[in-house]
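User: Show me an example of a complex going from sequences to structure tokens.

Assistant: Sure. Here are the input components:
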Amino acid sequence: MEETVIQARALTKEFVRDEFHIVALQDVDIDIHKGEFVALMGPSGSGKSTLLHLIAAMDYATGGEIRVLGEDLRALSDREIARWRNRNVGFIFQQFNLIPVLTALENVELPLKLTNLNERERFAHATTALKLVGLGDRLGHFPRQLSGGQEQRVAIARAIVTDPALILADEPTGNLDAASAQEVLSILSRLNKEYGKTIVMVTHDAHAARSATKIRHLEKGALLPEGQLPAD
Amino acid sequence: MAIPLSYNLRNLVVRKTTTIMTALGIALTVAVLLSILALVDGLRTAFTASGNPLHVLVMRKGSDSELTSNFTRTGYQDLKFKAGIARNKAGEPMASLEIVTVINLPSISNPDGSNVTLRGLSPIGIEMREGIRISTGRWFETGKREVVVGRSIAARFPASALGRKLRFGRGEWEVVGIMDAGKSANNSEIFADLNQVSSDFQRTEVLSAALVRAADAVTAAALVNDINSDQRLNMGARSEVEYYDSQTSSALPVQFLGMFISAIMAIGSSFAAMNTMYAAVARRAREIGTLRVLGFSRGSILFSFFVESVVLALFGGVLGCLLVLPLSGVTTGMSNFVTFSEIAFDFSIGLPIMATGVAFAVILGALGGFFPARMASKKEILVALREV
């Protein structure tokens, strides 16, 4: 039996902005299993990023249920969620979000500061992660000394350094040229195929989505049935 | 484990202009505070060094200073044979009848003249002050219009240079020596022969006070009690240490003013630090969001930004200490409101004072950094990530 990593039922997110009631996500049911690489696609405002944020417990649903890695995230305190996220989730941002004053190695080491590893072990883990993304020779470089593609690879190394079960990527190729985007997608594919990582990737790009093993579309906050494309 | 300190330190370096400006503001506040503390400490040191615990000062009952006291020669005769008064090698009681008055001399900082304490005393009075030595010249001779000036007087009053003549009383007095009284207030005095001074100031019978030395500390306390309760003598006695200690109050107005200015500046510096940290939090909102996503708790974020503010203030504090350090040992003078004359003393900037300055800066940093750090920790992840 396949192990379910993400299970959402009637997941809803509503909010009020400038007196307008907005439904960002409505009654979403989804199951994502271990080892899957799922691409979430849809036009802007379709709710794909909202779903990703709810999975990462960066935001809270206003209705429905969500269990990630068997954990009901609403039952956890703020501090427990922070710890849970550190152990179980690697997040990749569109804008890379590296800390500009830290080197590539230090950026990758950051999540390990919250573990029990000693300095030498942290260094070893971070170095391994950076070598895995092909940046073993850029350990001491600051983000400003790297290209966009290299920055995103450092961000991937940072996301995988704690060996999380789940990797979440929000438009990881959105700020990259075609060649760099392909490198990043190759790394994600490799992480999925060779290391069995469960990956959920939000993307606009149909080419990027083809790297995934499954594509799901969202439209106006609703998750379309598998295989169904938006009307537009 | 917390967010690494290198993250904060490097951020301070990256925005070095803001860091330096804020640190300078804190440094100036610390420098003002330290200057005041150094001044008060220097004054206190001068007064503390002046009192000998075995010495008992006898003045008219109710007098707070030798200047306003009077003491007759008859009273002195009754006093000097009291039990408990130590004797010198020659067997004489160690009791010194003295006259204290003020004369006006033009100083470097005040050409119109400042009051200076003139002390008339006999050889036994000099003998009792073992801490004083002649650094240049010689002691005055009895029966002559000769004076010995304190080291600070010589430095601050050009007219009192060795060999020069000072005009006061009924004639001119030759400066025959300069005395070094260590750190004591005697450095700000002029010593001359008791009888010559009393004669010139027409106070041959009614002088100012008497200084006596007790055989030991226990006897000193008993001597004070004995003199105070002696109805026939009708004089007041207190230990010399206590007498000089009470004169530290001369620094109170300056101390109050200095503290007031420091407090106002501290509020300004604290707001500057706060402003800097608010700007840092705003500029690094996305980093804060990222750190939260990586698993750092709100507490870690608060602590990190709080520490950054404290480190910034610490830098300002150290800078403030360095700014004020050249003042250490510099001699200054201020009016002693007890003796109505100028007292010279050295700014004293020791480790405790510098530690106070650094601690003060840290408090400023903590006050200025807490609210921005709290704001950083309260940011919702998504809101922080969306900020540019």
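The lines above are the inputs; the final block is the predicted structure for all two components together. The longest helix of chain B spans residues 16-50.
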